[in-house]
Amino acid sequence: MSSGWILLGAIVVIALFVFGAYNRLVALAQRVSQAFADIDVQLKQRHDLIPNLVETVKGYATHERGTLEDVIKARNAAMSAQGPAQVSAAEGQLGAALGRLIALSEAYPDLKANANFQQLQSELSDIENKIAASRRFFNNAVQEYNTGIQQLPAALFAGALGFTKKDFFDLGEQRGQLEQAPSVKF
Q1: Is the peptide bond prior to 182 cis by the omega test (within 30 degrees of 0)?
Q2: What is the number of other CB atoms lying within 10 angstroms of the CB of residue 135?
Q3: How far is CA 70 from CA 46, 97, 135, 165, in A?
Q4: Distance of alpha carbon 8 from the chain centroid
Q5: Intervals of the chain under pLDDT 70
Q6: Predicted TM-score (pTM) of this structure
Q7: How far is CA 101 from each of CA 77, 94, 114, 134, rounded to the nearest angstrom?
Q8: Nearest Cα to 171, choosing from 131, 114, 124, 141?
Q9: HEC per residue, 140-171
Q10: Distance, CA of 71 to CA of 49 (rounded, Å)
Q11: CA atoms within 13 A on the CB side of 179
């Protein structure tokens, strides 16, 4: 009879441990989702700012139609992207297009001096900083989650309970484009 109690006690301890590990993984997964939602809020603000910026530039740089169209196409692609991998790729392309748009101000002194353009450029810079901070928070949450599902003993049952590795918000191939200074042609 005592070996039955020991076996029952061991099963209860294991079950409690699995419940505790499961709840921890659920909390980590929720943190990742919340962090991605924070990025989404910042990206929405940037998407809302872009049409105003394009309209302001359009008045001064009418023959730069290709650059303006590239920004609009990149914005539309970014707005329709789903999931961290697609969003990060689309946002990388949008960031590169915005860099080329901002570089136009160097070729147009009147545009560079325009108060509306300066305000929009300042707002965009502020939003870019917030996006970078949100991306760091998201990537930290993903790192903690991925570590949690790979550490023993949670690794023994995480996959069976539906916990899979999450992707970082990485700029990937666009990182090189964003790190280069945009070229300004006169």
Answers
A1: no
A2: 23
A3: 16, 6, 24, 34
A4: 47
A5: 1, 62-63, 171-186
A6: 0.76
A7: 17, 10, 15, 24
A8: 131
A9: HHHHHHHHHHHCCCHHHCCCCCCCCCCCCCCC
A10: 12
A11: 6
